[in-house]
Backbone:
C-alpha cells in the first residue's frame, strides 16, 4: 500500500500467521537406566497440540566421551528401535 492507503494492482492478502511458541512434549519409556545388555529396544512418544509432529530426532549421552550428546536417529517417524550399544563392564 502507498501512504494514501491505495493497494497496488495484483496485491494479495496473506495470513493471518500464527506462531506456535509452545514446545512439543516427548518421553522415553522408563526402565532404560538398568539395562544390562548391549542391545535393547527403546520406545518413545511425543505430541504437539498446535502444530503436530512430523518426525523425531533421538539423541543419547555417551558417558565414555565426556558425557557428550550423540544423534542416534534423525528425522524418523518410527516410535521404537533397537539400540546397539557397548557391552557393559561389571
Residues:
Amino acid at each position: 500500500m502507498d501512504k494514501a492507503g491505495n493497494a497496488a494492482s495484483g496485491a494479495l492478502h496473506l495470513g493471518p500467521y500464527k506462531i506456535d511458541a509452545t514446545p512439543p512434549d516427548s518421553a522415553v519409556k522408563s526402565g532404560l537406566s538398568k539395562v544390562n545388555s548391549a542391545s535393547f529396544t527403546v520406545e518413545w512418544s511425543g505430541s504437539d497440540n498446535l502444530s503436530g509432529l512430523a518426525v523425531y530426532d533421538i539423541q543419547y549421552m555417551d558417558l565414555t566421551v565426556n558425557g557428550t550428546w550423540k544423534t542416534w536417529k534423525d528425522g524418523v517417524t518410527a516410535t521404537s528401535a533397537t539400540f546397539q550399544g557397548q557391552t557393559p563392564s561389571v
